[in-house]
Each structure stands twice: as structure tokens, then as C-alpha cells.
Amino acid sequence: MQEDSPVQNENTPDTTVEQPRRARRRNRLIVAGAAALVALGLGGVAVATSGPDRPAPTAVSLDAQSRAEAASRADRSTRESSAPASASASPTVSPSTASASPTPTKTATAKPKPKPKKTTRPTAAWVDPMPGAAVTSCYGQRWGTLHAGIDLALPSGTPIRAAAAGTVTQAGDAADGYGNSVFIDHGNGYLTHYAHQSRIAVTVGQAVKAGQVIGYEGATGDATGPHLHFEVHQGMWNQIDPAPFMRARGVDLGC
Question: Which one of 21, 48, 178, 187 is most buried, counting C-beta atoms within 10 A?
Fold first, then answer.
């Protein structure tokens, strides 16, 4: 008796067709998972989607050769940056040289300025015996007799000065109306005579300089008022005119 083949209901799923389809889907999932694992191992990124109605995931991987070249370049740049500086680089100053203190320069010590030497005017060989005095009488004839000198007048007590350097040969009353007088021998054959002094300031034998005070004006002897009677002798008691004599020596007595 022939067995009837079972009748397939159209609503009943066809297992002979469904099973192979499921197997193929499972295989695709396994392949996609393996590809994702490989991509993750190489540093890539795997993008996968699952589901019965979506296509299998696609693995996105980086180019291994490009990565290797980039890694090689990076490694070379690191080595080059750590290499020692070339010989052309500026030399580094050694600590011993840099720390050496500079040699101090000697500063010139200012020398004190020398004090200016005191310059003293050389005393003239001959000077006015009573500077600034008024001339009251010159050398010559007066009242019928020789007036043998020049009379110089200033207030009583005015200092009288030696006309030139010499040695005092007489100091005191000279008689003949001269009153208190001083005679100075100048050692060249000439003497000077200073009469009518109120007070004498030198002594016999004393050396005097030109311009040194030897006494003070007065009116001793035959005098009408205080004045200095000044004479020049060429040898003792040989009176000459004092005016030209003194003028020849740079002193103008006003006569």
C-alpha cells in the first residue's frame, strides 16, 4: 500500500529551506566578528552591525605600511633631536672662566696740586723815604744860604724809611740845627741823612733794608714845623742834590 506523502501546509514553515538560511547568517556573523577582532588587533576600528536584515559589518583598517613609515620617521626625529650639538654651535663658557673675577684696574690717584709759591716782589734798590709827602722846599739857595736837602712834610709821627740798604753810622742829635738824625752808609760811597725826627728807631751799627722804618717825623732842631729833611752825601758832609740822584734810581721826590 502506497503511503501518501505528507501534505505540507502553506502556513507551516519550510524547515528544509529555513535551516540553511540560518546557517548562512550565522556564518556571516562569525566571519564579521573575526574580522572585527583582527582590525582591533592592528589598531584599526571595526564597525559592525547586526541583525537579520542588515549587511555584514565592514572592518576599517589602517594601512600597515603607512603606519610603519610614520613610526620610522618619528623614531628618526627623536634620535636626531637627542644627537649632540654640531661643532658649529657657539662654545659654552667654562664655569672657571665665567666665574673668574675681572682684574681690577688701577685708578690713578689724584695728586694734590702743588701750593703756589709765594712770590715776593724784590725790594727796589732805592725807595721814597716818606711816600706821599708834600715837598715844602727843594735843594738850593734859601735866605742866602745853601739848603742842602729836600723837605718832605706829613703829619707828625709819620714813619720815615731807609732810602736803600746799608748800615747805620750815626743815630742821635747831629747838631747844627738838624735835631735827631740818622745817617746810613750804603757802601758805594754815598750816605743818606734823615733829620728833625721826633723819635729814632735804629741804633749805630745796625744793618737796615730799603724801606725799613728807621724813625718818625718830627720838628727837632731848627724846624718851623714837622717835616723830614732828607739829604744825599757823596762822602761825609759833601751834600749833593737828592732830586736827580734819586730820579736816576727810579724815585721821583717832586723837585
Answer: 178
The residue behind cell 550565522 is: 26
Q: What is the pTM of this model?
A: 0.54
Asked if residue 128 has pLDDT above 70, the reply is: yes
Residue 138: count other Cβ atoms within 10 Å of its Cβ. 16
| Residue of 84, 230, 69 lying closest to 147 (CA atoms) | 230
For residue 224, what is its C-alpha cell? 718851623
| Burial of residue 201, with CB atoms counted within 10 A of its CB: 0-12 exposed, 13-18 middle, 19 or more buried | middle
User: Residue 71, SS3?
Assistant: helix
d(CA 223, CA 218): 9
Distance CA 162, CA 131 (A): 11
184 Ramachandran zone, left/alpha/beta (phi>0; psi -120 to 50): beta
Stretch (H or E) spanning 232: strand 228-234
